[in-house]
Specification:
Blueprint: E1 7-9, H1 23-31, E2 36-38, E3 41-43, E4 49-51, E5 68-69, H2 70-79, E6 85-86, H3 92-100, E7 105-106, H4 111-117
Parallel strand pairs: 1-2, 6-7
Antiparallel strand pairs: 3-4, 4-5
């Protein structure tokens, strides 16, 4: 049977487990044998990238807006020997910003446009 790469969607999380898109969820996923972790990055109102799926914090942390920064996530991924790839980036300026933060790759809907419009 062919080998598959196993990605943990927002880490290993769920009832009784860690909150999605958090270091404990990422660490648990790696401990459970995931090859990598998929995570979501959204900017805060002041432009700071946050690892968080939703556009707002209410669904998971009402009244308690704690989230992991992109820099923390990238550093932790690299410390575990993993690449930090961000999904879905279609804006060249955001791709440049993520590259400056140490992100290894991005998933995009428009590869030619993104490659041609990024600063070098």
């Amino acid at each position: 049977m062919a080998e598959l790469t196993l990605w943990a969607h927002r880490g290993s999380h769920g009832p009784g487990g860690p909150l999605e898109n958090t270091l404990p969820a990422f660490e648990r996923a790696l401990a459970e044998g995931a090859d990598g972790v998929e995570l979501d990055v959204h900017p805060s109102r002041d432009g700071v990238p946050l690892v968080f799926h939703d556009e707002t914090l209410e669904r998971l942390v009402p009244g308690d807006p704690r989230a992991l920064t992109a820099v923390d996530a990238v550093e932790r991924a690299h410390a575990h020997g993993c690449r930090a790839n961000v999904w879905t980036v279609n804006d060249a300026a955001l791709a440049d910003h993520l590259a400056a933060l140490g992100v290894d790759g991005v998933f995009t809907d428009h590869p030619a446009e993104l490659r041609n419009n990024r600063r070098r």
